Amino acid sequence: MLVGDKSYQTVWMEGTSVFMIDQNMLPFNFQIHECKTYWDTCMAITDMSVRGAGAIGAAAGYAMAQAFLMMKKKTKAITIREARQDIEYTRPTAKNLFYAVDRVYKAGLISPENAMIEAQKVAQKDTQDSKKIGEFGSELINKKTNILTHCNAGWLAFVDYGTALAPIYLAKRQGKEVFVYVDETRPRNQGAKLTAWELHNDEIDHVIIPDNVSASLMAEGKIDMVIVGADRIAANGDVANKIGTLEKAVLAKEFKVPFYVAAPLSTIDAACKTGKDIPIEYRSQDEVLYQTGIDANGNIIKIRVSSPGSEALNPAFDVTPAKYIKGIITEKGIITAHHRSIQKVLNES
Ligand code: MRU
To answer: I want to staple 18 with a disulfide (CB 3.0 to 4.6 A). Which of 35, 152, 206, 229 is the partner?
Structure first.
């Protein structure tokens, strides 16, 4: 994607370093963060310098390749299995992380160079899949459409293009009039900070809304469709995505607004029979109790926004049952959120 007049990917590897757009600095500063070791890359995934299902998948694949390369140089006393565990421990919910690590681990057992090649393939595939999702998804968007999205499943959340936002980018290029309602997505505000930044950058009409506004917008008939991403999809079509997705899906059903999930097949976890099997990450309560922003001097600051002495609960994801989902937009086409359709597309791929 273009930032200014330069084309960027969210995450990439050059030599033995992993580079990424530092998402903790956005939308205020555009900075590239370098991870020299697999451990640096793990830290960047954990602290969410890189985030979003596909982007952390690619970063984790690169981290695995870095670990193989480090072992080759014997610069650190780790076993490759320990390194794999470290990487897998960074974030538990997004399936793409485990998918990428597994692919690169198996490739690296042949040689570290092979691990590198595989990690690059994982990242390239993420880009190709996102592009196809954009193509299939744009067919669902009419000439004039108001879309609600939650969190950030744009190009920042993948290596490029994105999933939920990819159809929107393409629809705009096809001359359609799209307007996006962007849930701010408490507590980390990926919508207000990242989705809004992406849409502004691409000159797509949008407005940021507090997370509790969408019900009234739907009741007023102002939302034509909902498109969200996914962090893990169970074999029966239940979808884990950013906390708050479930309530959007329930609302959408009530107000007869089609609710779509956009995700590559690499997000499907056939080993999870239903959403109940998906591990949900709980993050630090500080994310709820404090907010980060920018002061008048341009410094990024963290302030407390809740009553001192109270504690907070911070599940990062929830699970939307398949019955609320009109369709899953994948790189192979739009499928129903049902175990038969999911099994069929997995068998064919
Ligand atoms: O905690 P995050 O920001 O890494 O959450 C993952 C997500 O980006 C969202 O849940 C998104 O909607 C899924 S698709 C990238």
So the answer is: 35
Q: Quick check: 317 pLDDT over 90? A: yes
DSSP string for residues in 291-326 = EEEE-TTS-EEEEE-S-TT-----B-EEEE-GGG-S
Of all helices (H) and strands (E), which one includes residue 230? none
Ligand 1 lined by 61 (C-beta under 6 Å): no
Give the Å distance between the CA of 190 and the centre of ligand 1: 8
What is the tens place of the pLDDT at every residue in 130-167? 999 999 999 999 999 999 999 999 999 999 999 999 99
Q: The pTM is what?
A: 0.96
The mean pLDDT value of the chain amounts to: 96
Instruction: Give percent of the chain with pLDDT exceeding 70.
Output: 99
Beta bridge pairs of residue 179: 146
Is the shortest distance between the CB of 53 and ligand 1 below 6 Å?
yes
Quote the distance between the C-alpha of residue 96 and its chain's center.
9
Both tokens assigned to 222 = 């102002």
Identify the residue whose C-alpha is closest to ligand 1 atom 6.
52
Domains of the chain: 2-130 (1.20.120.420), 133-348 (3.40.50.10470)
Among 20, 24, 152, 156, which is best to mutate for testing ligand 1, by the most ligand atoms less than 8 A from CB? 152
Question: Please, are residues 159 and 58 in contact by the beta-carbon 8 Å criterion?
Answer: yes
